Amino acid sequence: MGPLRHCSRSACRQAAVATLTYVYAESTAVLGPLATYAEPHSYDLCAAHADRLTVPRGWEVLRLALPVSPPCSPDDLLALAEAVREPAHSEDAHDAAPGPNAPAHRGSADRLPLEAPGGADGMPRRHLRLLREPF
Description:
Elements: E1 18-23, E2 28-33, E3 42-45, H1 47-51, E4 60-63, H2 74-89
Parallel strand pairs: 2-4
Antiparallel strand pairs: 1-2, 1-3
């Protein structure tokens, strides 16, 4: 996930949840979910500004479904990262740190260890990685 994008309206520092794009040839404004990447001819809007959007007389507004839940704030992401790091540094978890080939403990002894995704050998271990369940 990239850095948090803010509303394009001046003096608004709320998190963007929608992207507004104008189709000038059809006199239409398209308001939809936040685009994956910021585009130069589109505008990111917060929930309040997306709800109060007005367009010029004679134009149409095409409103696509917006997400129900608000996006994560940087504080939420930091809290998640700390929660992931915490068990690794916990003294009461285990006396010794498991080796790199030790199976992951998931609360059930009959489960197989998780496997790293293909091509992950050269990735630094300081980042979160996706682990797939064996089939």
